[in-house]
Amino acid sequence: MITVAPVLAPLLLLVAMHWSAQFLARQSSRLFGRRVQLYLFGLPGTLVHEGSHVMACVLFRHRVHRVKWFDAQATDGALGSVEHSYNPASAYQRVGTIAIGLAPLVVGAAVILFAAQQLLGLTPPATWSRAAWSVSTWHLYEAPWWRWALFAYVSISVGGSMHLSASDVRGTWRGFVTLATWSVAALCATAMVWWLLQQVAPTVWDSRVVPPVRNALHHLTQLSESLSMAMLLAMVINTLGALLLMLPLTFSRRRARAR
Fold it and tell me: Number of structural domains, the chain?
């Protein structure tokens, strides 16, 4: 049975990943210094972040003018950026602003999912239940320590860049307006088709329309479960890493006060 939880879980975890990424970046920068933190963890994550913007631009036919892949000397705090433009008259390109703005979260989650599958052997259970959150259910305990260490690095570096800048969010509003209009139109059209079929051929809806929709939702649920588990692991690692980094900072501050 398909429930709402598997569909909403990745959305909630994306928000949590955004917060945990910012938390980790602040703590690692305070401990190691900004330059070390940027090159050790920021560089891989920034490449994934900006690369996701570029891929979304290509997918939605935006014109890419300039890409700054990584700039540790940036005075405005932006390690990378993608300058692009689009045709405002194209509804498809306007909707693309949503995908371009949210691309770092989606692509980052996909990278973490791929790392979890390849390094930890993550295989989601067939159903979404309380048992699905058990580590033993996902057979993660079978992975050796070095695979966990490598996954932790991917989670910290890529997950540490899974946050949206103000420009990422600001550029999506036109797309949301267009998408909302399309969604309302699609709902109205679906309701009209359903009503017509009920009048003319009442069995067609249940026999021809419902099965493929249910099958698509089933595959979406499976993908959602995998993304949720991978992001949950990465979020926990990010948060624990940030908390562990706080220990030497707290100890050094107490020593300084004692002097």
Answer: 1
